[in-house]
Amino acid sequence: MTYKGQIWKCNVCGNIIEVLSPRDDSSEPHEGADALVCCGQPMNLMEENSVDASVEKHVPVIDDKKVKVGSVPHPMDDKHYIEWIEATSATGEIVKVFLSPGMVSEAEFNFKPTSARGYCNLHGLWKSKF
Ligand SMILES: [Fe+2]
User: Fold this and answer.
1) What is the CA(93)–ligand 1 centre distance, in A?
2) Domains in the chain and their CATH numbers?
3) Cα 34 to ligand 1 centroid, rounded to whole Å
4) What is the chain written as a DSSP string?
5) What is residue 123's predicted lDDT score, i.e. its pLDDT?
6) Alpha carbon of 65 to ligand 1 centroid (Å)
7) Which of 10, 59, 66, 129 has its CA 20 to 30 A from that of 88?
8) Which parts of the chain have pLDDT scores under 50?
9) Measured in angstroms, how far is the CA atom of residue 80 from the centroid of ligand 1?
């Protein structure tokens, strides 16, 4: 079943989407589908921290209001870079910062995140560890 916050990718066209509902608690009346479809094919659910790649360069590290991907800076070149960093606050606020090649693989937020995720164009979705 789909749930809020999931990231799905189309293996045909490369579209990446995020599920906004149903919520991840039982109060939400929406029911999500088992899978999503794009280009006539089932989309691929991006599982966090599931790709065999350098953990040090991908797992987001929270340092006060800053999130760095990862403990060793991730490359930010044209063919391999962090597309976005997402931070969640203690009150449930979710903010994404989109990055481009040439930038630094980090972002600063106006709150201290309780969790963070980052998306590498080659190595997928990564979540901070707590
Ligand atoms: Fe990567």
Assistant:
1) 26
2) 1-46 (2.20.28.100), 60-127 (2.60.40.730)
3) 28
4) ---TT-EEE-TTT--EEE---S-SSTT------SS-EETTEEPEE--TT-SSS-STTTSEEEETTEEEETTTTPP-BTTB-EEEEEEE-TT--EEEEE--TTS-SEEE-SS--SEEEEEETTTEEEE---
5) 96
6) 23
7) 10
8) none
9) 6
